[in-house]
Every structure is written in structure tokens, then in C-alpha cells.
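HUMAN: Spend a minute on the protein record below and explain its fold to me.
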Amino acid sequence: MSEIAKDQVLAFIRGRYPQAEISDSEDIFQLGFINSLFAMELVMFIEKTFAVTIPNDELRIDNFRTAKSMAELVDRLSPVPVEV
């Protein structure tokens, strides 16, 4: 899993909720940080930041529950691994 992708996703979430302490494995849906608008912003952020297209069959909640699961999604969709 790309540490860079995970860190960038976490930074994006923390930018929205600077008062929250969110780890890479916490379920942001369960914590109540996600509404439908922010979910779409996450999809757009991932597609734009990592130059990937998320196919409809990957738009599952489990792929967006944690920064770790989003980084794993980026890894699967990236033609080349996202690394330093």
C-alpha cells in the first residue's frame, strides 16, 4: 500500500475536520465524518490527485471507510505504484 496515498488522503480528511484526530485505520463513516457531499468530494479528490478513474464497481463503501482502504484502492487503480 502506498504510504504517500494514505498520507494524502488523511491530510485531505484532516483538512476538512482539523479538530479531529483520525488514524489511517479508523472508519470515517462510523465516526460520522462522511455525508453524501463529502463522499463525492473524496471520490473527486482521489481521481484528481492520483490520476485514476474509479469505476462504478469500485464505488463501494468499503473502499472508502478508511484512509488505508482508499490508499489500497489507489494502488489497485494506478498504472504505476504511487511511491516516493
About this structure: The chain has three helices and no strands. The CA atoms of residues 22 and 31 lie 9 Å apart. Residues 1-77 form a domain with the Non-ribosomal Peptide Synthetase Peptidyl Carrier Protein; Chain A fold (CATH 1.10.1200.10).
